[in-house]
Write a structure and sequence with these properties.
The protein is mostly helical and 220 residues long. The chain folds into three domains: 69 residues, no CATH class; 67 residues; 61 residues. It contains eight helices and no strands. Helix 5 packs antiparallel against helix 6 and helix 7 runs antiparallel to helix 8. The longest helix has 39 residues. The N and C termini lie far apart (68 Å).
Length: 220
C-alpha cells in the first residue's frame, strides 16, 4: 500500500489512479462515493490527496496539509445528496420533454404529406429542430445513466433557414447537416423495425435536401 501511494504521490497524481487506490485502501464508503460521483475537480483532488497522505502518515513522516477548500464529510455528503436530488428532478423533466418531442415528431411525420406545399418547408424545418433537441436530451440522459450526474445543458443552436444564414454560418451548418445525413443513413440501414427505417430514411432525405440547398448557395 505505502509503495503504491508513494509512487502515486511522486508521479503525476492522476485522479483516476488515486481514486482506485482510495477505493482499495480507504475506509470511508461515503467519501469514496463522493469522490467518484463528484468527479475530478479542485476540491476533490485536494481531498483525495489529503486522504491518501493520511493513510501513510503514521509510517512515513509526510506533512499532511489540510487544504482550505476541504469540507467536512457530512457537509460534502449533504451537498452531493442535494445535487443528486436536483438532477433527478431535472431528469424527470427531460424525460417528459422527450416524450412530448416524440409525439410531436410522430404527428409531424404523419401529417407532412397533407400540408400545403408552400408550408411544407416550414414544417420540415420544425421537424429538424425537434430532432436536434431530442438528440441533445438523449445525450444528457445517457450521461446521467452512466455517471449518476446530469451534465450541463449545452447552448441550443437556433436552426435557421439557409436563406437567412451568412456565408460563415452556411459553412458551419453544412458540416452539421452532413453529420446528420450520415447518421440517419446509417440508422436507416441498421434499423430493426420498418417504422424506424422509414422515419430515419425520411430524416435523411430532409437533411439531404437542406444540404443540397446549402451547397447551391455556397456555389453562388
Amino acid at each position: 500500500m505505502i509503495e503504491e501511494i508513494n509512487d502515486w504521490l511522486d508521479h503525476g497524481r492522476d485522479y483516476r489512479t488515486g481514486l482506485s487506490l482510495y477505493d482499495q485502501y480507504g475506509t470511508s464508503a461515503s467519501l469514496k462515493r463522493i469522490l467518484s460521483v463528484g468527479g475530478e475537480n479542485t476540491r476533490n483532488k485536494d481531498t483525495l490527496l489529503y486522504e491518501l497522505r493520511k493513510l501513510i502518515r503514521d509510517k512515513k513522516k509526510i506533512p499532511v496539509i489540510i487544504p482550505h477548500e476541504i469540507l467536512k464529510p457530512e457537509k460534502v455528503v449533504a451537498q452531493v445528496n442535494d445535487r443528486i436530488e436536483t438532477d433527478q428532478g431535472k431528469v424527470l423533466a427531460l424525460e417528459l420533454e422527450r416524450k412530448n418531442l416524440y409525439k410531436v415528431l410522430d404527428n409531424s411525420h404523419a401529417t407532412l404529406g397533407f400540408v400545403e406545399k408552400d408550408k411544407r418547408k416550414d414544417q420540415a424545418l420544425e421537424i429538424l429542430k425537434a430532432d436536434e433537441q431530442l438528440n441533445k436530451i438523449n445525450a444528457r440522459l445517457d450521461y446521467f445513466k452512466l455517471h449518476g450526474v446530469l451534465p450541463p445543458e449545452t447552448v441550443t443552436e437556433t436552426v435557421k433557414g439557409a436563406d437567412s444564414l451568412s456565408p460563415g454560418e452556411l459553412i458551419h451548418r453544412q458540416v452539421v447537416v452532413r453529420t446528420y445525413v450520415s447518421k440517419y443513413k446509417r440508422l436507416a440501414e441498421t434499423g430493426k423495425s420498418l417504422k424506424d427505417i422509414a422515419k430515419n430514411r425520411d430524416l435523411q432525405a430532409r437533411y439531404q435536401l437542406e444540404l443540397d440547398d446549402i451547397n447551391e448557395r455556397l456555389k453562388k
